[in-house]
Design a protein that fits this description.
alpha/beta, about 240 residues, about 20% strand, Rossmann fold, 7 strands, 11 helices, seven-stranded mixed sheet
Length: about 240
């Protein structure tokens, strides 16, 4: 097999698993991506860090000007993701935050984005301490995490399924995290962040499903219009203390 760092861009992008991940990133998370890209443009950070940067597809699609300026740094646990992100112009480093610290100096960044990582770490307070260290005073943090009390997970439990499905299966198949996720509700999220950050606001949003036209999906979407906390995920905007 050709090493990832010796592959051309077309070869990398044609890898089945990566193509699947990128398709879902764009197709299933459009609402989240629009919220985050607007926040970035409103805040206008000069230098930003993405924890769990994946392939950097979000930046190519939504804020390509930051790639052109070389303003984005990214860490991830998957080297094949980092190889693609680097080809897109992101300064990448492989880091496992359950075992390692962030390889950056104190107060290096104006903004940090932590998307889909909090629910996978067993050391959330240590992770936020590291983020606070590398973030400038009054720097901005965006945290995105699935909601433990979403209507989707409530429905799965009512019908006797694990609320963690299909995360367990996905994680085991991908082989990079052989444990299930830890979900948070709004109170838990505030509690785990409050030592180092002041939360300015929390936004609830939905993700699309592959079976978007199913009746239960429609019913859950209707319910969540009246109870925002029942939506699929939370996005917190916070300031470093």
């Amino acid at each position: 097999m050709v090493p990832y760092n010796n592959m051309g861009k077309e070869e990398l992008f044609n890898m089945p698993e990566l193509a699947y991940d990128e398709r879902d990133c764009l197709a299933l998370n459009a609402e989240k991506s629009k919220i985050v890209s607007k926040l970035v443009r409103d805040i206008q950070p000069k230098k930003m860090l993405d924890i769990g940067v994946c392939t950097g597809i979000f930046y190519s699609k939504y804020i390509p000007e930051y790639l052109e300026n070389g303003a984005i740094y990214g860490v991830d646990i998957q080297q094949e993701f980092l190889d693609i992100a680097a080809q897109r112009g992101i300064h990448t480093t492989k880091v496992n935050l359950d075992k390692e610290i962030l390889p950056y100096d104190n107060k290096s960044f104006d903004m940090v984005i932590c998307d889909g990582i909090l629910e996978h770490t067993l050391r959330p307070r240590e992770m936020f301490q590291e983020i606070s260290r590398v973030l400038k005073s009054s720097g901005q943090l965006i945290v995105i995490v699935p909601s433990a009390v979403s209507s989707k997970r409530r429905w799965r439990m009512l019908r006797g399924d694990s609320p963690f499905f299909p995360l367990i299966d996905n994680l085991l198949n991908k082989g990079f995290m052989k444990r299930c996720a830890i979900f948070y509700d709004e109170r838990d999220l505030r509690r785990v962040m409050e030592k180092h950050f002041t939360i300015k606001r929390i936004v609830f949003f939905d993700q699309k499903y592959h079976d978007e036209k199913a009746f239960m999906v429609w019913l859950m979407r209707t319910w969540s219009k009246f109870y925002p906390s029942a939506r699929d995920a939370m996005l917190a905007v916070a300031t470093n203390k």
